[in-house]
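Re: the request from the purification team.
They wanted to know what the chain is likely to look like in 3D before they choose a buffer screen. I agreed to run a prediction and write the result into the notebook, where they can find it.
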Amino acid sequence: MKFMNDFDYLKAGEVYVDAACQSLRPRPVLNALTEYYEKFNSCGERVKYSWGIETDKRVEATREKVLKYLKLSHRDYFVSFTLNTTYGINLLLSQLDGEQFDVVVTSDIEHNSPFLSTMTFAEKYGMERKILSRGEDGSLPVGEIPEKAVAVINAASNIDGRKLVNIKDVVRRVHKTGGVVIIDAAQAMAHSSDVLEKTEADAICFSAHKMYAPSLGGIVVRKDLLPKIKTTFIGGGMVDDLDKESYLLSSEKNPDHLYTKFESGLQAWGEIIALGAAIDWLGKLSKKEHKNLEANYTEVFEFLNASEKVHLVNREANPTMSFFVEGIDSHLLGEALGAEKIMARTGYFCAHYYLDKVRHLPPLVRFSLGYHNRPEDVEKIKKVMEKIV
């Protein structure tokens, strides 16, 4: 199968089911990263020689690809690059003018990134913090969102993949009542990007390493959010002029350089370029690859769901599924699976509040599949799980 040649480094018998943490990288992405380091390793936006010109061209192309991937307009949005989703959310909240809002809102199934950062944001401004319960379908109770709220919500859960199916209703409600919406898109970008398309959220934070690209973060920012930002995280690459006690931000001088508002210092140019390659790769996937992924995760879900000893958090099949097995410590089960070359995550997956305090569940095992998985991976999972359980 030609498609699987993109993951030819996987050894026989190795089954990687930890894509929710970080996806594997296909050959075109690895090649793009290597090409940068071997052929035009240079500092973007700082040099005039040919290597730097090539870097600038490809980095700008990646910014455009991110917007196109989400079906968002360059007229309304720009793309800045960061370390990861957590960094992006904190970068925004640490500079958002909280005096313009009354309450910060998040949900019960959030990753620790939004959960903790909304906590510190509320403490900083002495405002109320409201935690809303998501429906089994992933929806947020729109009517319970207060006015003038800063809403920080995931588009897809890293526990069971459930999506924010009413994301557009959430955005409309928050904007109508004078608030802003920051979306944690870490788990949505690779396999659930449809939920993000054409949304009018004020910012979308994502991690490239969860969408078949190198370790990198990104924030897609709505331009009219900028008046609500007080720039305090600042450094090289962000200013066009400087005096003893004053400076001129590049984002204020040039409307085409708004992305520098959140890009201090030297960027990960090679990783940004490789993200562009990952988006190209995702765009070229055929219906067959999409159907193969769906068939694989559906079969694993149905297999687990059929066992009386296996307790799934998921209500329906999803590439990401979490469970525990009666009478077996999940961490020991993870070690046993690892000994059979099945690589899965165990624990609370940085979602401690929901899994431990709300659901009172023991540590779990998480299988998160990707486009690299093959039918033989599914058969091995079933065979090994039957033997262990």
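For the purification team: The radius of gyration is 22 Å.
Please add any questions underneath this entry.
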